[in-house]
Fold:
Amino acid sequence: QVQLVESGGGLVQPGGSLRLSCAASGFTFSSYTMSWYRQAPGKERELVAAIGPAGGITNYADSVKGRFTISRDNAKNTVTLQMNSLKPEDTAVYYCYKTNYWGQGTQVTVSS
Structure:
């Protein structure tokens, strides 16, 4: 069955960096767009970044452009979100997404 397992969340100070990873299994990874979403307390889940099957096409929310980078390794079935210059408003649970499937989420907290 499809499994998406996120890792890499944690507590970081404003201006710091974190790297989230999603290990995927149970489907042909290289055939699917992969995405990262996030959900802050009291807010709707929102798209953060997406990457096409071959990795050549990426899309970012305006709020993270220039600070976050999504990438993928089709040989290792992983998708990564490098987050730099983190802000308190980036605090949320971050989810890995593949069509119709969600990971369990990983908490990112940006606070001094």
Summary: The chain is about 0% helix and 50% strand. The mean pLDDT is 97. The first strand starts at residue 3 and ends at 7. The radius of gyration is 13 Å.
